Amino acid sequence: MGQVRNTYIVARAFDELIVVDQHAAHEAVLTERLLASEELVRPSPPARLDLTPREAELLARHLGALADLGLEVEPFGANGFLLRALPASLADQHAPALLDELLTELAVGSDLDPDALREKLASKAACHAAVKAGDRLSAEQQQAMLDELLAAWSPATCPHGRPALFRLTVEEIERRFLRR
To answer: Which run of H or of E encompasses 123?
Structure first.
């Protein structure tokens, strides 16, 4: 039906209204895509990242964890790295900003088991790449997001546990208008 404040998508489904937080919904969809090992994109030329010695050491220790998500990063000089490939969902992202957020996540989550770390990195990357509150979406983009969200394994919440949608039934609407 449309967007409210370029933040919420309002849709009709059978006997109910669905209100979707577009950021949380997109984050949930992107996380599932990343964990499903989607197609990789190879930037040309590769994105170069120059890090501090401490950041470089942290990144070097976790190249395998990033590779598990489809981020192909390789050393390039003393404290430099090249990003050679990344998942298609992240292709439009500014590589240094994305890796900076992932480095922050690695710094606090490096003691997690590999599966938990992979999920944590996927949700952080998805959060970074997801549409934000205030982003205007075309009707086609809204519909595509709703379709993907409703096909998702867990459409009700984002990976951080925030609600991605809620439903208003006809009965609830009627109660609010004192019709029942």
So the answer is: helix 114-129
**Rounded Cα gap, residues 134 and 127, in angstroms:** 15
User: For 63-97, what is the HEC assignment?
Assistant: HHHHHHCCCEEEECCCCEEEEEEEEHHHCCCCHHH
Chain centroid to CA 146: how far?
15
Other C-beta atoms closer than 10 Å to the C-beta of 160 total 13
- CATH number for the segment(s) 2-176: 3.30.1370.100
Q: What CA–CA distance (Å, rounded) separates 59 from 107? A: 9
Separation of alpha carbons 120 and 99, rounded Å? 14
In tens, the pLDDT along 68-114 reads 999 999 999 999 999 999 999 999 999 889 988 999 998 887 677 88
Q: Which residue has the tokens 């430099």?
A: 80
Q: In the block, which residue shows the tokens 């937080």? A: 21
Give residue limits of the domains in the chain: 2-176
